[in-house]
Design brief:
Blueprint: H1 5-14, E1 18-23, E2 26-30, E3 38-41, E4 56-60, H2 64-76, E5 80-88, E6 96-104, E7 110-118
Parallel strand pairs: 4-7
Antiparallel strand pairs: 1-2, 2-3, 5-6, 6-7
Helix pairs in contact: 1-2
Organism: Altererythrobacter epoxidivorans
Keywords: Lyase
Protein name: Lactoylglutathione lyase
């Protein structure tokens, strides 16, 4: 758990957050009165932590530039690329497009940074 803390410290810092809880078996990033946070925990059943197949954490970015920065931060902190930043899918009737990047943390957990942008 501690070995991946710097990866999440860097991601959280870009999003304007820090550690809100920090224990031997649990680290959480976010704000007490903010949106959902992210946590690394020692499994309660004391078995080895594993990567969830079909599981992904989505991080809402402020804009396209932050989507790019989060992707770069992830890769420069031991993460791996799962999809470069860019638009995904077609624009809706108002010209809004889902803009995202995909990456994995050093243990292989999948994350995505996204925002909606108006391309119309």
């Amino acid at each position: 758990m501690q070995k991946n803390a710097p990866f999440y410290d860097a991601i959280a810092a870009e999003m304007g957050y820090g550690r809100m809880m920090d224990f031997d078996t649990f680290i959480a990033w976010g704000a007490w009165d903010g949106p959902a946070g992210v946590a690394l925990t020692k499994p309660f059943d004391e078995k080895q932590a594993t990567v969830g197949n079909g599981t992904m954490v989505a991080l809402q970015a402020q804009d396209k530039e932050q989507v790019h920065r989060l992707h770069e931060i992830a890769l420069s902190n031991g993460g791996s690329d799962e999809g470069a930043p860019g638009p995904r899918g077609e624009a809706d009737e108002n010209g809004n497009v889902f803009y995202a990047s995909y990456f994995r943390d050093p243990d292989g957990n999948k994350l995505n940074a996204f925002c909606m942008v108006n391309e119309g």
